[in-house]
Amino acid sequence: MNEIVFPPEITEYIGTAAGHTIGMVIANVDPVVRTLLHIPEQYSSLAILTSRTGAAAQAIAIDDASKAANVELLIFELPRDTEGYSGHGNLFVLGAQDVSDARRAVEIALAGIDERAEGIYINEVGHMEMHTTANAGPVLHQIFSVPLGKAFGFICAAPAGIGLVTADTAMKAAPVEIVWYGTPSIHLSMTNEIIIGITGDYGAVKKAVDTAYQKGSDLIQTFGKVPASILHFK
User: Fold this and answer.
1) What pLDDT is stored for residue 159 in this prediction?
2) pLDDT in tens, 14-47
3) What is the largest CA-CA distance in the chain?
4) Distance between CA 230 and CA 68 in Å, rounded?
5) Residues 6+ apart with CB under 8 A from 24
6) Which residues contact 82 (CB under 8 A, 6 or more apart)?
7) Which of 4, 6, 216, 228 could pair with 10 in a Cys bridge, judged by C-beta atoms 3.0 to 4.6 Å apart?
8) Ramachandran angles phi, psi of 87, nearest 5°
């Protein structure tokens, strides 16, 4: 594949990552845009990451980036998308006092998304997203109400009925606590999926996510192929 070369005047572009993710910055946000989006006055620059597919892979990568750069999550949304599959895309906007922090956050997040996207799975009609992280930071705390420094697991499957079964399976598999959930009409954009975010001891969280993955995979493959990571799906 030929590398895309952008004209030097497109200073906003930083790079791309899995899930059709693009990372950008705005060095000096326009006053009207600031007012419309309720951007706090202390942040002159914005770091922007947005994807067609996935949410938790991006959220965990951005959470890691926030630990290394002086940024704060300002906007998180789950638009209806997944490029025609059952789930969502995403929009993350982070504020920074200096554009160098915004750039650094985007660069770190893009690299992390390429690694984390292994846990986003699709087949002809189904969709799953399964992730664990041992140490939740400020972004995961803000989005999913995970206690800071605690393990976090993200379990998503679609269509929504399969998501319900995987959530139930996860909760029966290990002693974990639900800190966030989404259904088509709650916290989501009427996407055909159910999501839970869990916390607890890391070993328990991992067991719950792994068990949910197997159950979801078994059910989704009744539609066709075994769900494959978006990094390998053909």
Assistant:
1) 93
2) 999 999 999 999 999 999 999 999 999 999 999 9
3) 54
4) 27
5) 12, 13, 14, 47, 48, 49, 106
6) 52, 53, 88, 89, 122, 127, 191
7) 6
8) -110, -140
* pLDDT per position as a tens digit, 53-94: 999 999 999 999 999 999 999 999 998 876 766 678 899 999
Q: Alpha-carbon distance 127 to 228, whole Å? A: 9
- Strand 127-133 to 21-26 pairing: unpaired
For residue 152, the number of C-alpha atoms closer than 13 Å in the C-beta half-sphere is 30
Tokens 């059952």 appear where? 86
Question: Rounded to whole angstroms, how far apart are CA atoms 205 and 199?
Answer: 6
Task: Return phi, psi of residue 34, to 5°.
Answer: -55, -45
Based on its alpha-carbon atoms, the radius of gyration of the chain, rounded to whole angstroms, reads 18
Distances (CA, A) of 118 to 114, 131, 229: 8, 9, 5
| CA atoms of 56 and 30, how far apart (whole Å) | 29
DSSP 204-233: HHHHHHHHHHHHHHHHHGGGSSPPEETTT-
Distances (CA, A) of 180 to 61, 111, 116, 197: 18, 26, 20, 5
Bridge partners, residue 94, by sequence: 47, 73
Q: What are the DSSP calls for 64-113, one per residue?
A: HHHHHSSEEEEEEE--B-GGGSSSB-EEEEEEESSHHHHHHHHHHHHHHH
